[in-house]
Amino acid sequence: MKLCVFDFDSTLMDGETIDFLADELGLKEEVSSITKRAMAGELDFFESLIQRVALLKGLKKKKVDEICHSLPYMAGAKETIRKLKQRGYKVVVFSGGFRNATDYAKDILGYDASFSNILHDKNGVLSGLVGGDMMFGFSKGDMLRRLQNILRISPQDCMVIGDGANDVSMFKYAKIKVAFCANEILKKEATYIIDEKDLREILEIRI
After folding, report:
1. What is the predicted pLDDT for the residue at 153?
2. What is the pLDDT of residues 77-122, one digit of tens each?
3. Is 164 in contact with 182 (CB distance < 8 Å)?
4. How far apart are CA 80 and CA 60, in angstroms?
5. Angle at 49 between CA 43 and CA 53, to 5 degrees
6. Active site (annotated) includes residue 9
7. Is 142 an annotated catalytic residue?
8. Other beta carbons within 10 Å of 88
9. Per the residue annotation, which of 9, 19, 163, 167 is the catalytic one?
10. In contact, 165 and 45? CB cutoff 8 Å
11. Per the residue annotation, which of 7, 157, 163, 167 is the catalytic one?
12. Domain range annotation of the chain
């Protein structure tokens, strides 16, 4: 194994970033309901992302950063990444969430790089618009193939870990596919299933 790709929300982080942001506006239940359906594969990821981010319009960017800098990380996240890197892995994050969270967590958890989305703001206030690297249901698989080409590695050299429907696309391009506390749609594609909220379970997988 040479490359390990983690999802962020509900994988490296215990929860969904957008739900924490929506809670600040009193919209957590509405946004969380859409999130759950999207992660279960019941909604198109792109459409659900656009719909949810639109509800964040008016939230101050400063508050977004405050929330994203105090998110709860999954048990064992930092230790697992450190040990994977000691084994020679490059560790990367693909997230349908936001750079406010993934860029900040990079220095805390120790992964090498992240690819995620950007919440557009105007004069320090969210406009309700979003763009970035992980906008579509196919984005993670597409990005994984690009990285494999750049690094000159094959799916046989890759391990991926995720929990939701938008992780299915990257599962197609990795030998080791770990469904972590995952939705059924992802478990069906997995080679390993972990139902305990402790990422250190990944270290027990024998390659």
Report:
1. 95
2. 999 999 999 999 999 999 999 999 999 999 999 999 999 999 999 9
3. yes
4. 34
5. 140
6. yes
7. no
8. 8
9. 9
10. yes
11. 7
12. 3-204
